[in-house]
Write a structure and sequence with these properties.
- Strands 1-2-4-3 form a four-stranded mixed sheet, sandwiched between helices.
- The protein has two domains: 264 residues, no CATH class; 94 residues.
- It is mainly alpha-helical and 501 residues long.
- The longest helix has 24 residues.
- The chain has 26 helices and four strands.
């Protein structure tokens, strides 16, 4: 697959990254021996991945939705644990790589692996999965691309070009989504097409990711059938309607051989039939709303809840439809429909603790958007240690004039979750509401660090240092010392970046 600047859609940044990193190898291409880790060090691969992830964080399609992120993490963490237990994830990779999944609002059916343990997941893919096991199968496959160092091996294959040429090619593809002419020039100037040919995943590597991913997923407790049904779903899509919305089909060719292999493994595995969960149905519905924000699409979701065939749907499917409909109605700013659909949703999730929690969070989220912070604080457990509750409660506390409570809770949170950019940004707002300007600016800087934007972070740290020199810190020498230390660390990171270019 080659890039044509005129054929690149305006959206789908992650699809371009996937096309650059995960396409099919040309016939006759020779690959490093499977199991060979390649010449790129783990440190260099991590830095390369950070260079690309930095741009993903800036992309308008990137989304840090606490509810969806928590759900994806509930699948991702068991997969990581299983990979460790099986010896697929070495101690070195475990320590050096990021192991982060970034979500994109794009409605295309796609997921992709990047250097250094970064993974991308489109909400379009989440929305079409029927159960958690199907989604886990995709994550396990992509995880295995990283643990087996496939990207490093392929860069080794083309070691006459510096690894950073890869980043130039990918960034050129991203530029093309905004300006086709400029993006095409960047890609041509970086010999992007040649680099792409050297980074195409082979069918052998796809089979290896299938085999290892299958073992990881089943050891993590996911049903073997999830792999088979996901493959069959993608194969059906490939036959019927691959119109450019299914990049995963081209980057991961769904051959009959691979499907047969998964079916044979499923028969050998000790498994039970996959039963869709209400939790997954609700999260798939949430993903549908985020990935289809147009008015017509949202109205169609609302109408689905009132369709004549709704009553005949399974309970889990009804819950997913009602969740999407209520969320869509709120985004359409139709309060009467939103209230009516939320009431139906609460009935649909009765008796399911997880479903009730997710429905309550949705009600609180809508109340916050309507400015009803008091209702949010009545509904949300302000002592909860779960991220959606922590962030929702903090926003409501800041909005209702209890910024001090929010700051205390968030400070405790970021002490254990220092890479949580959203929490740092809220902490900045909480400090700002109390007039603590130095701490507010420092928290804003930490939010930039969490998203790898070291230039902006250093600017904020320097602004905090200026405030301290002017006496704005109120003699808080500990905070001033932290700011100085963090500024030096970020300056060091920027120097490393400059040497890599």
């Amino acid at each position: 697959m080659s890039f044509s600047p005129t054929s690149i859609p305006r959206r789908g940044l992650a699809a371009l990254l996937a096309a650059a990193l995960l396409a099919t190898t040309p016939a006759g291409a020779q690959l490093p021996t499977l199991g060979d880790a390649g010449d790129i060090t783990t440190s260099a691969e991590r830095k390369l991945g950070e260079q690309i992830a930095r741009e993903l964080y800036r992309d308008p399609d990137y989304i840090d939705d606490p509810v969806l992120v928590e759900y994806v993490q509930s699948l991702w963490q068991p997969l990581l644990d299983a990979a460790r237990a099986r010896g697929e994830l070495s101690a070195e990779l475990d320590e050096r790589f990021a192991w982060q999944v970034l979500l994109g609002k794009d409605r295309t059916i796609n997921a992709f692996a990047l250097p250094g343990g970064w993974l991308g997941l489109h909400l379009g893919l989440v929305s079409v999965t029927a159960n958690r096991d199907e989604l886990a199968s995709v994550l396990a496959h992509e995880l295995s691309h990283v643990t087996q160092r496939h990207i490093s091996r392929l860069v080794t294959k083309g070691n006459q070009q510096a690894p950073w040429m890869l980043a130039a090619m990918i960034l050129g593809a991203m530029a093309a989504t905004r300006n086709p002419q400029a993006g095409g020039a960047v890609m041509a100037g970086s010999q992007a097409l040649a680099a792409q040919q050297q980074l195409n995943f082979s069918r052998d590597m796809e089979r290896e990711a299938d085999r290892i991913g299958f073992g990881v997923a089943t050891q993590a407790g996911f049903e073997a059938q999830g792999f088979v049904t996901m493959f069959e779903k993608l194969q059906q899509a490939a036959r019927l309607n691959d119109n450019g919305a299914y990049p995963y089909l081209r980057t991961h060719p769904m051959t009959s051989e691979r499907i047969a292999d998964m079916q044979s493994r499923q028969q050998l595995a000790d498994h039970t039939p996959v039963q869709p969960t209400l939790e997954h149905a609700l999260m798939a519905g949430r993903a549908r709303v985020f990935s289809n924000p147009g008015v017509d699409a949202l109205r169609a979701m609302v109408a689905e809840a009132d369709a004549s065939g709704f009553a005949s749907l399974p309970r889990t499917r009804q819950g997913g439809v009602l969740y999407a409909a209520a969320f869509a109605a709120s985004r359409l700013r139709e309060p009467a429909a939103t209230t009516r659909l939320l009431a139906r949703l609460e009935t649909a999730v009765a008796g399911d603790a997880t479903g009730q929690r997710l429905a309550k969070l949705l009600v609180a989220e809508i109340a916050l958007a309507d400015g009803d912070a008091a209702r949010v604080l009545r509904m949300v457990d302000t002592e909860s240690r779960r991220r959606p509750e922590v962030l929702l409660a903090a926003q409501a506390q800041i909005q209702s004039g209890h910024a001090r409570d929010a700051a205390q809770r968030l400070q405790t949170w970021v002490a254990t979750q220092p890479r949580d950019a959203a929490a740092w940004q809220l902490l900045s707002s909480a400090y700002g509401a109390q007039g603590q300007s130095v701490r507010s600016v420092r928290a804003e800087a930490e939010a930039r660090v969490a998203q790898l934007d070291y230039t902006a972070a250093l600017d904020r740290f320097k602004a905090a240092q200026d405030l301290v020199r002017k006496g704005a810190g109120g003699g808080d020498y500990i905070e001033a010392s932290i700011i100085d230390t963090r500024a030096r660390q970020v300056e060091s990171a920027l120097r490393e970046q400059a040497l890599e270019r």
